[in-house]
Structure formats: C-alpha cells, structure tokens
Amino acid sequence: MPSESPTRSQPVPTTRFPRSLFKEDVSERYREILEAAAALFAERGYLATSVRDIGERVGLLGGSLYHHIKSKDALFIAIHDAALQAAGDLIEQEIAAYAEPWRRLEVACIALLEIQLDPNSLTMPLMNDFRAVPEEVRQHLVAKRDTFEQIFVTLIAELPLDPRLDRKLYRLLLLNLLNSVVAWYRKGPLSPADIGRQIVLIFRHEITSGSR
Question: What is the pLDDT of residue 56?
Fold first, then answer.
C-alpha cells in the first residue's frame, strides 16, 4: 500500500478482531483489548479514540488497562501490522498457484481489492489514519508498508512491460488506484474481482515491435 493514503472513508461497522490475525499466542484479555481497540480505531479514527474509550469498552480503567498495554500508539501499531501482514500473507497465498506474470498481478490486485472492499475489513480504516498518527508511529507504518509493497515490486519486475515505462512509477500509480477504489465503490454490476481485472487490463502495456 502506498505511503500516501486516500481520503478517510465512512466508518465501518464494528467487527470482531479476527483470531487468525495474530500468529503468536496472546491472552484472552489482551485479545479483548485488541478487538476493542481495532473496532474503535475503525469507527472513530486514531485521534478520536482514547485509551479511556478502549478501557471502557472492555471494562478496564486506569492502571488495570496499562497492565496489559504500553500505550495507544503501541496498540495501533500492533493492529496495523497484524492487519497488513494478514493481507500480505493472503495475497502471497493466492498468487502462489499461478506462474504467468500478468495472471499473478491480476490475482494480487483482486485479492487486495476484496480485502479493502470488505465492509468488515480493518485494513482501509487503519490505512486512512496515516497522517493522524505521531511522527515516530508514522515512520514505523511507512517501513511496514514498504515491506508489504515488495509483493508488488516483485510482481511488476516479472512483467514484460514496454521498456519505456518506469516500473517504480507504474507500481505507485497502480497501488494508488487500487487504494482509491474504496472511496467510490458501490455494489453494482462490477464486483471487486471485475474491477481488479479491468484495472490490470488498463495497465497492461507489453513490449511491442514499436516500443524499442
């Protein structure tokens, strides 16, 4: 996902934090806190969510809550990183079944759109808070997103693109477009998969005899 995030979308419904999002074992109490924080960040955004709000949702106040967490920033980072890691793992799993470069890119774009356009997704609300978080948190998020984007760096490196195209610019434009779909998408004749296919079709600029 690109470092520049799209305009904040409408709040998503409260959703239960997926148990598969964390690979390591965590206590049930900490998981309850993660679920509450994730839902509040998705509903209200980073700035409008306080540690007190999170504590009230799980029935913990003051020192009792800080016994389980370091800070609001640490919670946001943990949830953001887990959501992004889960998205990356899913995309890697989906593309592993294919060898043809354009098909792999198409599958990756479809998977990303289906994650983002899921009304219960945590990914886009967290991405939209990029500019709201403190600078030190933002630096961490940028590093994590750079790691995530390596999936698309590799996919685009495999494409038989017209040599006149700058692959970094190609990637930035593609990801910016994919991340902006959530701002205008409404259920209709085109599904997220249909939109993903159309985007790749538009971006399909292969080597031709006149492109040398």
Answer: 92
Give the span between the Cα atoms of 52 and 45, in whole angstroms: 15
- What pLDDT is recorded for position 148? 94
The two tokens of residue 111 are 């998977």
CA gap 86, 92 in Å, rounded: 10
Helices and strands (DSSP H and E) totals, the chain: 9, 0
pLDDT of residue 48: 92
Query: What is the spatial distance between Cα 212 and Cα 208, in angstroms, rounded to a whole number?
Result: 8
Cα distances from 33 to residues 57, 137, 199, 206, 209, in angstroms, run 8, 20, 38, 49, 59
Q: Which residues are CB-neighbours of 150 under 8 A, at least 6 positions away?
A: none
Alpha carbon distance 199, 170 (integer Å): 12
C-alpha gyration radius of the chain: 19
Q: What single letter denotes the amino acid at residue 106?
A: E
Query: Mind listing the domains of the chain with CATH numbers?
Result: 19-202 (1.10.357.10)
pLDDT (0 to 100) of residue 210 = 56
Average pLDDT along the chain, 212 residues, taken 10 residues at a time: 36 40 69 88 89 91 83 90 89 97 98 88 70 89 93 98 95 95 91 97 81 54
> In angstroms, rounded to a whole number, what is the distance separating the alpha carbons of residues 138 and 77?
9
